[in-house]
Write a structure and sequence with these properties.
The protein has 254 residues and is of the alpha+beta class. It has 4 helices and 8 strands. Strand 1 and strand 2 form a beta hairpin.
Length: 254
């Protein structure tokens, strides 16, 4: 019995101190106040880290109040600078545009003056020829009667329409009798490769009276006539008729 009791004790010792014995953990004893300080420190670091992450996120997302206010103010200042530069550029552009408009207006005015001088010169030449035509037949050397001076044929700007102008002078002197007659135009055109003669006024003229006139000493005749579209006017001859007889003629080659 003693032997069995010893063996039981031996087994217990083996279980407690042998290989199959439970593992023994050796831990250092730390006071509670150090543990509390460590916990507080970890919490403080965690809160600081969370605040930094939150602030960084707000900055990245653009929701940080201070940064947004500074950025907005910077943008406003930059916008004011751009507005100032734009105002200066507009002022310079307006000045340049005004100078350009003044220059263009000056050019148009000079062009109008040049054109007016040309017209005045042409009118003076016509007046000179007109007064020369009023000289008596004995002084000018022409035979008494009527004549055509300065016949002009020009396109009017409308397709198929031409303008004629001429000066009719009665060379009978102060004792000249009144001349009553009519104007006849012979228009030579090229149509379809052939020369065709058109007589105006034609038999279908709606207003033949516009070709009739009466003069004592001089008279200016002017008007328009029409030709078919697509034709080429080559020559125009103006005739002064009295009782079916040609009293004067003059032609112009275009």
């Amino acid at each position: 019995m003693a032997t069995s009791g010893a063996s039981v004790k031996l087994k217990r010792l083996r279980r407690r101190f042998g290989i199959s014995a439970p593992k023994l953990a050796i831990r250092t004893h730390v006071a509670w106040y150090w543990r509390a300080l460590a916990v507080i420190t970890m919490l403080s670091v965690s809160l600081a880290l969370a605040a930094w992450i939150y602030d960084s996120g707000m900055r990245i997302a653009g929701f940080h109040s201070d940064e947004s206010a500074r950025e907005i103010q910077s943008l406003r200042n930059h916008l004011m600078e751009l507005d100032g530069e734009l105002t200066k550029l507009r002022s310079l552009a307006g000045s340049g545009e005004s100078s350009l408009q003044i220059e263009r207006a000056t050019q148009r005015q000079l062009s109008r003056q040049a054109k007016a001088l040309e017209l005045e010169n042409a009118a003076l030449k016509e007046d000179l020829a007109f007064f020369e035509g009023l000289m008596p037949a004995s002084e000018s050397g022409d035979e008494p009667g009527v004549r055509i001076d300065h016949l002009r044929i020009e396109p009017s700007g409308i397709v198929g329409e031409y303008r004629y102008r001429m000066l009719v002078v009665n060379n009978g002197g102060r004792q000249a009798r009144e001349f009553k007659g009519g104007l006849q135009l012979l228009v030579k055109i090229q149509q379809g490769g052939k020369d065709v003669m058109i007589t105006l006024p034609s038999g279908t003229e709606p207003n033949p009276q516009r070709f009739r006139f009466e003069i004592k000493h001089f008279h200016r005749l002017e008007g328009v006539f029409l030709v078919p579209s697509g034709v080429v006017v080559k020559e125009v001859e103006a005739r002064l008729l009295q009782d079916g007889t040609v009293r004067a003629r003059q032609s112009v080659i275009l």
